[in-house]
């Protein structure tokens, strides 16, 4: 029989709520108290650099970053927490994530105690804080591979109806978590400029294709999943164990050139329409931090097939979704110049996911495919069923047919040069301190000649 974890034990599970989630917990880092994204209850992992210094691991706390690489020298950590901080002294957190969930959780618990307002270590730790505004944020891990799923069923239905009016949701959708292999080489952190790609397109009424700057540049609102520990080639990941392989979540924007996509995607799926850039928020919000926000997966609509047994786990259905609000904002160059507030394009939630993160991971590894530490999975575009909840401009403007009004008299069908697009997300649950990801944004730059 499995032993119940001892309260205070360093090995409590990622899904368990412990003293690090106590909403009354406050930090001596004053900016953390009431911070929209990074209160002491979050403690997300990232990589930062200052000036020309080497990138290294850190934890976000309010407006600051705790330098993990400098932490071991203070002699305040021991055991698994010390091992995790030592592994974070690197330009990517792969070595730390490869240690698995135990050391990651042990470090969270230790750092929570060190940053708490009653910590005796404040004076020793203060020199290890870096102001986030003075730091450059990098990807938290080096992604060896990147795969994008299609689990947002309302997006799949709407985009399917625009690309394939007679056949919007293909018959495999409710049986298989569909995905495509992306390019890890073009995953970048928030703030990276979005150079308008050039590509081959062919309008439906054009006699022949042409090559040039794309006209239908779009965004996709997604969650990203960072893999913590992988599986050996040939060894599938049982669904019960799937979340043990997940380190945490991020926001992800799968920038998409819709005119290229429409021309190239059949029969093999997205290719150059989506691999020119994928932007993620730089902070990895750990599965531990998310424990209070786990929710039941919405039940499958009446009449939908039950997935095959390898994809079905009652515990996953009971806690596979999240109490998460997602938003998208747009600010054109003119709006920013005039000091006009960004326009909210949409607000959605995680209920749009037809498949859970665990089902994505298990399906991906089900043929023996090896997941690696640092691999990145996108969920697919998370659009809701109602107007105002769409996760892409293609859906909002019905593929450019219904232009959108911006403040100041501009209109948009797709993204224009100078537009700044920002994804944000907030986890909220009764009785807990809300947490967030920090922004995931990019400004569109003109195509390079
Ligand atoms: O052909 C289609 O129906 C649409 C494909 C995609 O947009 C691929 C994609 O990036 C999946 C997603 O974000 O949901
Ligand atoms: Ca996508
Ligand atoms: Mg992409």
TrEMBL record:
Residue ranges constituting the Fumarylacetoacetase N-terminal domain according to the UniProt record: 41-140
Originating organism: Novosphingobium soli
EC category: hydrolase
PANTHER family to which the protein is assigned, alphabetical: FUMARYLACETOACETASE (PTHR43069)
Cofactor(s) the protein requires to work: Mg(2+); Ca(2+)
UniProt keyword list: Calcium, Hydrolase, Magnesium, Metal-binding, Phenylalanine catabolism, Tyrosine catabolism
Gene: fahA
Top-level taxon: Bacteria
Keyword check for S-adenosyl-L-methionine: no
Pathways involved: Amino-acid degradation; L-phenylalanine degradation; acetoacetate and fumarate from L-phenylalanine: step 6/6
Ranges for domain Fumarylacetoacetase-like C-terminal: 173-425
Name this polypeptide is given: fumarylacetoacetase
Known EC number: 3.7.1.2
């Amino acid at each position: 029989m499995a032993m119940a974890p001892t309260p205070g034990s360093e090995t409590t599970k990622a899904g368990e709520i412990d003293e690090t989630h106590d909403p009354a917990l406050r930090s001596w880092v004053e900016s953390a108290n009431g911070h929209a994204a990074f209160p002491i209850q979050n403690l997300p992992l990232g990589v930062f650099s200052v000036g020309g210094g080497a990138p290294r691991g850190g934890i976000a706390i309010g407006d600051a970053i705790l330098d993990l690489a400098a932490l071991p020298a203070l002699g305040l950590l021991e055991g698994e927490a010390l091992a995790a901080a030592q592994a974070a002294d690197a330009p990517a957190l792969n070595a730390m994530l490869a240690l698995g969930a135990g050391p990651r959780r042990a470090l969270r618990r230790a750092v929570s105690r060190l940053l708490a307002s009653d910590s005796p270590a404040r004076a020793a730790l203060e020199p290890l804080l870096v102001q986030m505004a003075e730091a450059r944020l990098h990807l938290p891990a080096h992604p060896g591979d990147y795969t994008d799923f299609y689990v947002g069923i309302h997006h799949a239905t709407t985009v399917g109806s625009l690309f394939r009016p007679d056949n919007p949701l293909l018959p495999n959708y409710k049986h298989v978590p569909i995905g495509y292999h992306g390019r890890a080489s073009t995953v970048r952190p928030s703030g990276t400029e979005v150079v308008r790609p050039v590509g081959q397109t062919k309008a439906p009424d054009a006699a022949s294709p042409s090559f040039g700057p794309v006209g239908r540049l779009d965004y996709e609102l997604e969650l990203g999943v960072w893999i913590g520990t992988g599986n050996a080639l040939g060894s599938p990941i049982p669904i019960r164990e799937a979340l043990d392989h997940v380190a945490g979540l991020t926001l992800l924007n799968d920038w998409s050139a819709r005119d290229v996509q429409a021309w190239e995607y059949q029969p093999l799926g997205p290719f150059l329409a989506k691999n020119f850039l994928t932007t993620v928020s730089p902070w990895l919000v750990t599965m531990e931090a998310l424990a209070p926000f786990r929710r039941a997966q919405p039940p499958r609509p009446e009449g939908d097939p039950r997935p095959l047994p390898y994809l079905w786990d009652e515990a996953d259905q009971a806690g596979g979704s999240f109490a998460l609000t997602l938003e998208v904002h747009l600010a054109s160059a003119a709006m920013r110049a005039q000091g006009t507030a960004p326009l909210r394009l949409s607000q959605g939630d995680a209920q749009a996911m037809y498949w859970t993160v665990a089902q994505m991971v298990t399906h991906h590894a089900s043929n023996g495919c090896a997941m690696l530490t640092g691999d990145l999975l996108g969920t697919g575009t998370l659009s809701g069923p109602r107007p105002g909840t769409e996760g892409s401009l293609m859906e909002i403007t019905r593929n450019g047919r219904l232009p959108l009004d911006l403040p100041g008299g501009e209109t948009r069908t797709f993204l224009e040069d100078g537009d700044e697009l920002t994804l944000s997300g907030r986890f909220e649950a009764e009785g807990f301190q809300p947490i967030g990801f920090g922004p995931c944004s990019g400004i569109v730059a003109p195509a390079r000649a």
